[in-house]
Amino acid sequence: MAETPLDAYLPTVRADARDTVRALVGAIGAVGAPLECKVTYKMLVYTFGQRWHEWVVAVGVSKATVNLRFLYGADLDDPARILRAGSTTAAQADFTDVDMVDAAVVRAYVREAVDKHPNRP
Hints:
Aspartate Aminotransferase, domain 1; 22% strand; alpha+beta
C-alpha cells in the first residue's frame, strides 16, 4: 500500500501537533473538492492540477501552533474571525490544540477558498 502524504508528513512534526493535523486534513478532505495533496514547502499542500506554486490551502506546523494557510486568504470573508494576515494575499488560522478545530468552520473556509481560487477547474 502506498504511503499517503499525511503518512509521510506526520513523523516530521511534533507529536503533540499530530491530532490537530489529522483533524484539519479530515475537514479538508470532507469538502470533496478535486484537490491534490503532497508534502512540499514543509507543509501538506493542496492544489489543483499539480500547480504546487499556486496552492489553495496548506497545513503546516510551527513551534507553537498548527497553521491552516490559504494562499489567497485575503480574499476570504472570515466570518469566524480566525484568519490573520500572512502576506499581501495569504492568510492563516492558528490552532494550539485539536479542540480548537471546528470541522464545519474549516470546511466552510476551504470550500470558499476552492470556489474563489483563480485556477479552479
